Here is the input.
Amino acid sequence: MKTGIKKFSVDEESMYDLNTYTGRLYHFSRMTDMRLISLKENKLNSYLNLLENYKSNPQNFNLENSEINNELWKARYGIRSAINSETGKILPIYARMCAFVPVNIPIAFGLMCLPVTKFNILAFNTLNQCYNAMMNYANGSGTADSLKYTILSFGLAVSSSVGVGLFLKNKFSRTQTQNISLFKEVLIRTFPSCVAGFLNIFFMRSDYFVKGIYVKDESGKNIGISKICGAKAVLEGGLSRFVLPMPLILNHFILKGINRYPFGKNIKIAIELSLLGVALGFGLPCSIAFFKQNSKVSSYLLEKELKEIADKQGIEYVFYNKGL
Here is the structure.
């Protein structure tokens, strides 16, 4: 069996070690694998049946056989990529994490490659946040609260990204220095998306601040609801979204260098699209792997009543799910 890959278990969250950044990077690379887009309903049903058979009769599966072990993990990742864990419904293709790169390539092309005009800032930042809102809602709980927070976060993310983009354009359009203008052009193109990505998560999960989230002991038993952990989860999720567009900055400088060469227009566009795909495919797993999805925090840092419960039960650390 490949080094670093665990034996399959219904209790294991991942085939990799999620306590390390490298393990989380491999994990989320599997989750965002574009090949998972091709999964149809009959294939997903076969994966569900395979996992149900393992759950009922684990003794029939020789996990020392790497092919069997990998097939079970393949089924687990396939299901996670295509089925909403809250509602059990199959996600539309556009809402799957594996669709993030192909869907975002034309959006990133508009943000990074087309001229920085007011129309392009308005159109592509709005389009970007429309996609984010649809993906957030499709992967949410499907409740009225989920729709309410999606609409709220969408409106705030659009207004913030467009507002920041137009503000930077108006402020920086006065300078004519070439070296500075290149930096400012990159800032105008990427910073609005960084801000909007942070605010989208911030407002989408603002109920974490108000209501808190469940915290659990090491065995997975709920011990209460913590607003402190809720705030920490929102900030971690927001920061991961803030850095998500960062690889596009390097990508922009590469594209500027390519434009010095006399390639034809179609060849340049093909190169630009290919580089954007690489940057997005690299940036997504790298950004969401910064923080553990299931994080732990010292019980000493919890609210007073939760700390007392943890102390009585001898719990030193509690765990919470920050979400993606």
